[in-house]
Amino acid sequence: MTYLQAAPTFLIGAITFIAVMSIFYVGYRARKVMVKRNPEHADTDLKAINGMMIGLLGLILAFTFGMSNSRFNSRRELIMQEVNTIGTTVLRTDIYPDSMRTLLRSKLQQYVDVRIAFYEVGMNIDSARILYDHGEAIAKDTWRIAASYARKDDITTRTSQLVPSLNAMIDVAATRKAAGEATIPDSIMYFLFILCLSSSFLLGYDQHGKIDWLVVTGFSLMLSVTIFNIIDLDRPRSGLINMDNANKKVVELREMFIDN
Predict the structure, then answer these.
(1) 155: helix, coil or strand?
(2) Residue 260: is its pLDDT beyond 60?
(3) pTM score
């Protein structure tokens, strides 16, 4: 995990806000210095360049926001897919004899508890990896139990029902892990930050007369809030925008094991 991915979202938003305002003032002061050295700079007009930079900034903001929102929706859909797959697997154990059904459900209950804990550890990536490996081991153990029973069982319907759902359960967990690790590349985010600061500097440099700090503050605030939301969407394990509601569906799977 890189420093940018590990840094708190609120901290990044606050730094962006302060940096944009500071760089705007630096640009404003730079123009003053240049005008003193060469009065001809007083007639410099950067409106065309600023319009192009703001347009490019808006395009990159829309691109990164769309990317983070798409990833967020994909992760949420994968959680629901995993819930449905585990629920189907648990229900299909009912077609097995009581002894086998009890053993399979016990394993699946352990698996559900581990998958819940996998999300609840939040940004503790090391613990998340340990829990993922533990869940994978339980799933493979459940697979071996089902496969071993299938060799002895004459009723192929049981095998044809349970084995595919077990396989899907293992696959969706791996897909969900990969989706959680797929974030916006740092290079794109750094480019976005550089573009924000460059635009702020040019806007400050093109400022004629006294600075309207209310406008500058509003511009800096909206820019930092937008970046905050982009990063927050891209981090499913933390922040204001998270997967808590979707993960409640995983927790509800525990009810399937009550009195069974």
Answers:
(1) coil
(2) no
(3) 0.82
